[in-house]
């Protein structure tokens, strides 16, 4: 790529923020991937080689389908087991996002960044294999609002709100939200 003065390096991670991932080892692993893309972008900034990180939403991989006891043909049946599965996406959507980035003549403007499949899907007009455009970010934010506005949270609900707090704490635009989430967790967590 350096010899050709053209290319794209894509790291795949989990999460579109630098927020804590709930477990030290997992956090280090996933945030290191984003940092690797950032460092490569810094090293390659004089070349036309972009380096970036991408995250899928709730990934509906073959292993996840097996775990839920469903196939791609009947994956919606797993929503009863886990309502978050409703907004899942296939690995093909990640692939389509990477292909769109590779075809973008201005991809170097994204170098060093961390991008989500749901944002890239909107930007490039991508859909998943079933024609849907999963938007994990919007879905997750709505789930957090529903939990906070609801009654008697479950253990999973508390974890989801805590996860959003870990994201919001490092977001300068989410200061009010972070305070609200801390107060909710003080009452329920």
Write a brief structural summary.
This protein is 48% helix and 8% strand.
Tell me about this structure.
With 189 residues, the chain is mainly α. Helices cover 48% and strands 8% of the residues. It has helices at residues 24-44, 62-68, 91-103, 117-124, 136-149, 155-168, 175-188, and strands at residues 7-12, 49-55, 114-116. A three-stranded parallel sheet has the order 1-2-3, sandwiched between helices. Helix 1 links the parallel strand 1 and strand 2 (49-55). Helix 3 (91-103) crosses helix 4, helix 5 (136-149) crosses helix 6 and helix 6 (155-168) runs antiparallel to helix 7. The radius of gyration is 18 Å and the shape is globular. 24% of the residues are buried. The mean pLDDT is 94.
Properties at a glance:
189 residues, mainly alpha, 7 helices, 48% helix
Quote the average pLDDT.
94
In terms of quaternary structure, what is this? single chain
Overall outline: globular
Task: Tell me the strand percentage band.
Answer: 5-15%
Fold topology:
Layout: E1 7-12, H1 24-44, E2 49-55, H2 62-68, H3 91-103, E3 114-116, H4 117-124, H5 136-149, H6 155-168, H7 175-188
Parallel strand pairs: 1-2, 2-3
